[in-house]
């Protein structure tokens, strides 16, 4: 009975979020602005902020996709709620980022609770289709919102304020603010995944029948995770709106939902840090391939195919293989 | 009062009647075995008793409470746990984590989002106790998918035990287990007798006649005999319908 110490038993490696990888990424992110300044190309900072915002969204999606096996194809809706929370409140003179974020989270919580409760009655491809359908409903709602430009979108007159200060107008400040939020949400997600709740969620992913047979009703845990993920994704939207100083329904189209899934899969599902790395990789590829050729999507597609074929666990899996190769 | 009472349970899939007016009781502390040839509807019966499948008609009560419409998780929380004929585990989890999760379902809330569950000594200790009872404690740190078949059967039992049940539905716990391993498993079930109320579905006749207080014989979804092992073995209807006239019944 004492073969394993009960206080700190071995953790299943497939479930462990890659904290070290995340710390490396965060360090690189923190060093990015000085490098950009040295290169004298301040536009890169804006690209960096965009990457960080998408990293938040991808990580939030990984929480349900990787740990809960819920493939939401409508997650761009929450990005949209975040961006429109900024635009709509700001048009009423409420510029405070905390209030805007609170509104984004509240709206997302309600939407995720209602649509999640319905979507979770289905499984597999039906779940994917129904989340897509709800995402499209949100998309067309904002298209028809003519007061905020409808299809054309809506330019922000100013960025959000933080405690009354317009510090976020500074590109560096916005970048580091996004980074701090990313790190905070990573820490939060990491705690959740390693908690009692996280273990139940992962258990349902592993074998839902078994979980029912030991007394769990999967629905309530899956729905809770779905709501948490939606709320976190909307925070990414708040920063995207500030980064672009523009909001439009394009943020919530189903293409965008697909891109979020691509980021998570590309980075390696169920690792949290993989989703962050996947967001970086996908957006950098888009940036650089886009400069080389207008047919960049073709090459990006080829890259994805190769990745999925040769490293189903994404960039995370690739790095592990290299590390293991070295250890041998 | 009987612990588990099944009254006039019926279930059909189309024209095929798989459970035909089944009534049985399991007394507290009793080990009641159900035997029957392949396709007799044993697993379908367990599925209805555990809440996985709804019967067409009939009633199931546990300690006098009607649980006919209760879901599987609800029944587990009332103390009715089951093991599966085809192993159901969490393959990517360690053996200890599999069982700790079953303990967690009984102990406190699972809506705790902070605090490292790996370090929850209370969960791990209770899990280790269940693992020891099922004889798989030395494999606690192994990833569940890497266990042998026999070890999987023991993990099945450990997970059912970890929910602290009053009543166990054991669906062919010995399926695919042979030789010494099977003897050890029977000894383990023997040691559990009296402390748990058990409904045992089993193919292994030696095991059934060694363990059971009462035996029911299920043929084509219908119970044709119930009684002490010796009575059932001597029952002429059982001999013709199930065991075959000429075949010697193992003692």
Automatic annotation (TrEMBL), chain A:
- Give the subcellular location: Cell membrane
Broad class of where this protein is predominantly found: membrane
Alphabetically list the UniProt keywords.
Answer: Cell membrane, Membrane, Transmembrane, Transmembrane helix
- Is Endoplasmic reticulum a UniProt keyword of this protein? no
Q: Which Gene Ontology CC terms are recorded?
A: plasma membrane
One GO MF term on file is:
branched-chain amino acid transmembrane transporter activity
Q: What CDD domains would the database entry show?
A: TM_PBP1_LivM_like (cd06581)
Membrane topology of the entry: Multi-pass membrane protein
**Which parts of the chain span the membrane according to its record?**
48-69, 76-94, 100-118, 125-148, 172-189, 260-284, 296-315
Per its UniProt record, what Pfam families does this chain match? BPD_transp_2
Q: Which InterPro entries match?
A: ABC_transp_permease, LivM-like
- Transmembrane helix: is it a keyword of this entry? yes
* PANTHER family given in the database record: ABC TRANSPORTER ATP-BINDING PROTEIN, HIGH-AFFINITY BRANCHED-CHAIN AMINO ACID TRANSPORT SYSTEM PERMEASE
Q: What is the protein's name according to its record?
A: Amino acid/amide ABC transporter membrane protein 2, HAAT family
Source species of the chain: Citreimonas salinaria
From TrEMBL, chain B:
Database matches in SUPFAM superfamilies = P-loop containing nucleoside triphosphate hydrolases (SSF52540)
Q: Does the keyword 4Fe-4S apply?
A: no
What molecular functions are annotated in GO for this chain? ATP binding; ATP hydrolysis activity
Residue spans making up a coiled coil are none
Q: Where does the ABC transporter domain lie? A: 4-245
Q: Identify one Pfam family in the record.
A: BCA_ABC_TP_C
Which keywords does the record carry? ATP-binding, Nucleotide-binding, Transport
Q: Which InterPro entries match?
A: AAA+_ATPase, ABC_AA/LPS_Transport, ABC_transporter-like_ATP-bd, BCA_ABC_TP_C, P-loop_NTPase
Q: Does the keyword Transport apply?
A: yes
Return the GO cellular component terms, semicolon-separated.
Answer: plasma membrane
Which CDD domains does UniProt cross-reference here?
A: ABC_Mj1267_LivG_branched
Give the protein's recorded name.
Amino acid/amide ABC transporter ATP-binding protein 1, HAAT family
Q: Which organism is it from?
A: Citreimonas salinaria
